Amino acid sequence: MKKILFSVLLIALVPTVLSAEKSLIESIEKSGGLILPWPGKANSWEVEFHLRGRELTDDGLANVASLKSVIALNLRDTQITSAGLIHLKALSKLKRLHLERTKIDDSGINHLAGLQNLEYLNLYGTKITDKALEQLKDLKNLKQLYVWQTEVTDAGVEELEKSLPNLKVVRGIDLSKIVIVKKPVTTTQENLKWMPEGGPEKPPSKSKTGSFTIITFQNKSNKNTKLYWIDYGGSKKLYGEIAKGQERKQNTYSDAVWLITDDKEKPLGYFVAGTKEALAIIPK
After folding, report:
1. Which of 221, 227, 212, 198 is CA-nearest to residue 277?
2. Contact present, 17 and 37 (Cβ < 8 Å)
3. Are 134 and 157 spatial neighbours (Cβ–Cβ below 8 Å)?
4. What is the mean pLDDT of residues 114-143?
5. Beta bridge partners of 260
6. Dihedrals phi, psi of 5, to nearest 5 degrees
7. Sign of the CA dihedral with 75 first, then 76, 79, and 85 last
8. Of 57-66, 95-104, 161-170, which gets the smallest average pLDDT?
9. Tens-digit pLDDT profile for residues 32-66
10. Among 30, 33, 64, 177, which is most exposed with the fewest C-beta within 10 angstroms?
11. Percent of the chain with pLDDT over 70
């Protein structure tokens, strides 16, 4: 439907698109990009790869940079790295940039320092630190910055906000700091499926974002266990220990992947959160 809409708008709004630009658009679409005219501006574009172009690599960004009049660019969940961000230096009109859950780190942020029209930047789920924030201090038009699930600190955010007082920095929610909700088990609970390590059913490689819920983990095995969250990048993060015969209530989100190990960190099995409050029984 979006491609049909794009074709209609392209004919109606930009009848003078040059053949060279048409060629670029075709190349971007072959890489999985979706291109839409930016509302109210002739020959200006919104380019999205997060829907069907997630295999995009650094080389694929070269065509996007050649398009020039890109106002919004969504690279969420693609395979680009810090090295590929050099291609974005040419996008001087860029206002919105999504880089969440990509493979970038501090070394690529300097390529964004010249994007003076940038208003929105999403770096959620990347490997940036406070060093990246230091390189954003001259982006005077930046109004929204998302740094959830990064190595950014409170001190780094405070320093950036001194330089950019109109900037809103969103750090998201740290599940490990949420107070455990003590709520009695109700009949609406569902039992989560136990997927043993090495079994025929494999869990997803990483968690996905979803709706808030609660899991009660019950350790009915004969050993002490550890609880790990498999984060949005596929890394594991320790959330606590569950002694044999004990239980733990854990705030989570649907589609979150939870790993159970023994006390020596040997994987035992997995649970995947659903949309409802659930019971996760670690078997004997």
Report:
1. 212
2. no
3. no
4. 96
5. 227, 269
6. -60, -40
7. positive
8. 57-66
9. 888 888 887 777 889 999 878 899 999 989 888 88
10. 177
11. 87
